[in-house]
Specification:
Elements lengths: L1 H33 L4 H5 L1 H20 L7 H18 L7 H27 L5 H19 L1 E6 L2 E6 L11 E5 L4 E2 L7 H19 L2 H11 L1 H6 L4 H24 L4 E2 L6 H14 L4 H17 L7 H16 L2 H26 L1
Antiparallel strand pairs: 1-2, 1-3, 4-5
Helix pairs in contact: 1-7, 3-7, 3-10, 3-11, 3-12, 4-5, 4-6, 4-10, 5-10, 7-10, 8-10, 11-12
GO cellular component, one term: plasma membrane
Organism: Candidatus Eisenbergiella merdipullorum
Keywords: Cell membrane, Membrane, Transmembrane, Transmembrane helix
Length: about 350
Amino acid sequence: MKQLKHLLTERRDNVIAYGIVIIAFLIVQAMILTGNISSSLNGQLVPICAYIVMAISLNLTVGILGELSLGHAGFMSVGAFAGIVVTTSLADAIPLGPLRLAIAMVIGAVCAAIAGVIVGIPVLRLKGDYLAIVTLAFGEIIKNIINVLYIGMDEKGLHFSLLNQTFELSENGKMIINGPMGVSGVTKLSSFTAGFVLILITLFLVLNLIHSRTGRAVMAVRDNRIAAESIGIPVTRYRLLAFVISAALAGAAGTLYAMNFSTVTATKFDFNTSILILVFVVLGGLGNIWGSIIAAALLTVLPELLRSLNDYRMLIYAILLIAMMIFNNSGLKKRLLEKRAAARAAKAEAKSRKEAA
């Protein structure tokens, strides 16, 4: 009976989560249709969706798995450039933009997942600061590889080279990735609707993973690795699973993000991007999926909302960040959460007594 109640509570929380996202989407769509949204904010809707997915995926690694990763933008970069190559290659075969974007996001997620496996197998044997340093190095390696990568396409197919462009294209050929110059002339396929769908898919995958037996095993590994091993939990497999899922979601977000700009370079996915995403997770609360969503949306919009203050906007932004960090680690927040938990427990107890009577 207790397990059934717990399951119903989890499902109710999930339904509420999806409902809030859908309501937020409808409100923004209504603002767009009525013209009550500024052009600068309208242009940020797709990046906000991408950052929300990135924050949720990184929270899976940092909050749920309990491992610090500083190279999450590297997986985003893999998905971004893989998605650009796919959409360019399929432009004639699949003229429908949304379908081409969906295929590109799937392939971007698969490429990022493969990169996650390659990195995760040796890296997840480490922990703490060592893991953070290696993931940081991975992000820089990916950026440097893309800076020396040349990909072109003509009637004969795709052409690849490293360091220098060693291939020649026909008259109708086109360069896709041009080394340090990145990609230019990208057809913008991303939309707020596509970002909304990706957020829902990400929430569905992550929330169901957390509430599943696999998710409980991952959190058991996070809380006490030795105890988890002693009861037969395959620690390496579960750590790698969570890490690869996190990387795959970051790859899909990278494709969504890249297809929103006409020009994309590797510098868009540098160390600063990884730190920005980590800030979203830390401010939202480790393991708190909804906190990550709110922090990602708020901190992405806030600089634009403060733009009218000119020279003082970044100062106010920094002060607000500090205030949020202080509140996040204050006794006030603990007391509020304790009161909320006590109120829920009292409500549940009263309901059970009423049912028993």
